[in-house]
Amino acid sequence: xxxxxxxxxxxxxxxxxxxxxxxxxxxxxxxxxxxxxxxxxxxxxxxxxxxxxxxxxxxxxxxxxxxxxxxxxxxxxxxxxxxxxxxxxxxxxxxxxxxxxxxxxxxxxxxxxxxxxxxxxxxxxxxxxxxxxxxxxxxxxxxxxxxxxxxxxxxxxxxxxxxxxxxxxxxxxxxxxxxxxxxxxxxxxxxxxxxxxxxxxxxxxxxxxx
Length: 210
Hints:
Structural class: mainly alpha
Order of helices and strands: HHHHHHHHH
């Protein structure tokens, strides 16, 4: 896929994804409906299933014919998974977080959650191993939340004395280092306490909206 093209959201392509800081936000929008609408048997146990609550992932999706994206949840065979591939996706999604909230990718309450789930579905359908899926998920999270993961990398390098390249992606994506609340305590507070490690910057971060 030609990710530098302005047609990335309109034209089909079978070329590999080349993720960059410039196009990462477009992949949120591309993968969001994939994760939201792809049918999986496990979605019967998703917190979104039958919920009347208007989550950002459903209420925020306004690009279809329906007024709310909840209508599209779990409705289409967009990504076809074998039972083993689906189990792999669900296993990872339940322990993979992103620093915009405290919910896992399986509880896709926002567009980043849906996009992360969609990424796992696509990767598993193409035969990626569990380790590679964790690695890809961390790469996308890193581009979607660069400020957070720069600090996380600094935490491991400076506090844990571990090279970022040597850190297990599964560990980083877990609740302690990627969910918002624990990340603020375990990473941000620790990094901030080290004088001169990072410059002061205005507060803010990636939002969950189109």
